[in-house]
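thread: overnight batch results

M.L. [08:02]
morning all. the overnight job finished for the chain we discussed friday. pasting input first so we're all looking at the same thing
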Amino acid sequence: MKRTLLTLQLVLSIGVVSVKAQNMYPINNSWLDLETLVKTDSIPQNVDSVNFKTVSKFAARFNVVNLTGTVPTETVYKGRPFKIADEGHMSYSIPPHGKEVLIETNKEETPLDDVPGNDFIFPVSDGVVHIQRFEGNVGYRVTRVDEWCKVKCRQNIPHTLFTPVKDKDDFKTPYLFYFTHTDRFVVFTSLNAKSIHKTVIVDLKDGKAQPIEATVCGVIRSDNEVAFKGYLVRDETAKTVKVSMQGSNWALRDNNVAKLVAESVVNDTTIILARYHQSGPGISLVAFSAKTGKPVWNGEVQQATGIPGNVYLSIYKNRLMMEVAQPGGKYLEVFDLNTGKRVYSTI
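M.L. [08:03]
and the structure it wrote out:
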């Protein structure tokens, strides 16, 4: 495990991003003013410059794909619409009257794997990322293209273990699935595998893949939200989740750690963790000392029914936002960043 924790430190903080924090937070066709906590159904003036989800430094978090929901097959990059046309093509066009251009994405005509999230796209700061999950040994294909749909990097990653069986087809054990991404990295992990513990991080700059022999169930993003400065790793033997950050390692007890998923956000010397399980409802929101793991406060969470699919944490001044996507829709809770007291909820 020590070697694994050392390996996890290889993806370091990259660059600095300077973005003005914005105060209008969209949720369920309404807008919440994060300054006043007043909700409105009217679209704000200058919406493109005040939308917290698109212009704050946390914007990339809201592009993380919820595989239990509707995966994105369309996006816009540099004003150009991109979309998945079919299982073998992606298209783009140049507004206002540009002709749609088809680009081949599956020359081998390999069938897509029959699982949710087998074909989706999302924008990053320097292109559009296309993730395809194919059957067999082809595995995942991660491709980044520019505004002309020209391939800038591409990487294939195995997602299934094939075990030979005498006189029968190979026994298939799927173990790797898309987990999260930033503007620079995509993370695949073995959250749903029982006996295989593996994580693969793909660098979208050059397509290089970094394998980790552990099940990462949460990432700790760098200050600029681009890279990672830590990870949360399941330890099913010890029934703990290990929090590994640069200069700090500690663990939290969890008897159901095999189903644990976590979202995190760092505020100065504090790390805030939203922990939930794939097997049932309920979210634990706790702030810890990043160095010692000592609890600082427990969030006053208003629990909802339903199993969380994705949780998105973000910060605006002294507000902590926790948005939860689950079957049936989304909800938002806002907390005092210093005490964990709930100050707003859509539940």
